[in-house]
Hints:
The chain has 2 domains: 4-131, N-terminal domain of MutM-like DNA repair proteins (Alpha-Beta Barrel), CATH 3.20.190.10; 143-266, Orthogonal Bundle (Helicase, Ruva Protein, domain 3). It is 30% helix and 21% strand. The protein has 8 helices and 10 strands. The protein is globular, with a radius of gyration of 20 Å.
Amino acid sequence: xxxxxxxxxxxxxxxxxxxxxxxxxxxxxxxxxxxxxxxxxxxxxxxxxxxxxxxxxxxxxxxxxxxxxxxxxxxxxxxxxxxxxxxxxxxxxxxxxxxxxxxxxxxxxxxxxxxxxxxxxxxxxxxxxxxxxxxxxxxxxxxxxxxxxxxxxxxxxxxxxxxxxxxxxxxxxxxxxxxxxxxxxxxxxxxxxxxxxxxxxxxxxxxxxxxxxxxxxxxxxxxxxxxxxxxxxxxxxxxxxxxxxxxxxxxxxxxxxxxxxxxxxxxxxxxxxxxx
Length: 276
Ligand SMILES: [Zn+2]
């Protein structure tokens, strides 16, 4: 599932193709993508609009239009935005035809992705604020951000890292990588993480996301860059998807367990289980 680095990669790679272009015509072929709105109505609204900028908040890609509306795209499990395809790609659910004759294809095998058209800055802000907490690449994201988010919480620290309303954009891959880099066991009650460990974690979250962006994301199955290429972050995983392989830090075998209902990878030596 695309996380912050994958969505940020899509944003950066798509921006040169989209920014300043006018959407000559839009087609939405899957009602599920825009529900409860009418697909034809959404397509009609997009047609003729000029794209003034591409933004991102958490895992949302934000397509800002010249009429002050914003199309908020969430790729969920298997959504991809593709440019330059010779033929109509498989599982295409929507397409933007641009005024230079190019097009952007939206494909989605599992069909969990969403396109939501938000009218004006206040509606956009309300939409995002209701769903998303701290942006981990913002300059003011630090140990204090995590301390306030985790205060008094007994849930496992990994569960809270995955909660988009607390920290936006972190999913299963980057949560495991960040907790390993910070040497914190994923089941540690969030409110019991020490101040030095919170400082390590704030740094680690930012670091693993930036490494992921530099690698253009992780392609495990479905994620592709807009040109159809693969990310390479999977080659840089320290713990994720490395069950039984040696921890790059200490050599102990990585183990897989289950935390907050999610498959979780950790080093049993670097990430000591908290005492009960
Ligand atoms: Zn280790």
